[in-house]
Sequence to fold (222 residues):
Amino acid sequence: MKYILSFFILFSVFNIQAQNDSLQIGDKYWEDQLYINVSYNVLNNQPVEVSKSGFSYGFSGGYIKDIPFNKSGKVALGIGLGYGFDSFSHNLKVIKGNPNRFESGSDLKSNKLRLHNIEIPIEFRWRTSTANTYSFWRIYAGLKVSYNISNVFTYTDVNVPVNISNLNEFNKWQTGLTMSAGYGTFNFHVYYGLTSLFKNASINNNPINTKIVRLGLSFYLL
Fold:
């Protein structure tokens, strides 16, 4: 992972230098960027039996390719590729079986869900930047599509640790709306999940339609 991050950083440095050497005021420019998101996570639309959850967090990072719509570069489309990690403290108990069963886990200790995702952000971008200005106001809104490569449920039940990985009922493809807004490197960020975490899963015969909401900060590095 550290080698991938080093590659992104080196590529970004070379890209900045190339822009500074070649761009003149008024030129059309491509604002390729590294992005890092740090978030507080919420499980939305939980079943009544498992409505409470503890502190949950996430982070993601990757690279976005910029496609400007006009010569000024202030309106553009961004398409990227990245990696995301989420950790949830929750009250859903998963019981391994065929099929797996779901119950309230309010009495469990250290009940966690950890996700590793490949993500594809697609952003409609508006900003006040120019070819030679790298601190500016921005509003980026769009869609993020993610593919889950690992989901792990861990908890302790009567002093027995339980570890359940890669549920068949887990929706590997997730989609959500995103928005980032701010000035310079630091920006407020929100993600609102449109896809349920589970498919064909229920608790007490009620479908589990839990979705993810993320609130946090986005950092864009040229």
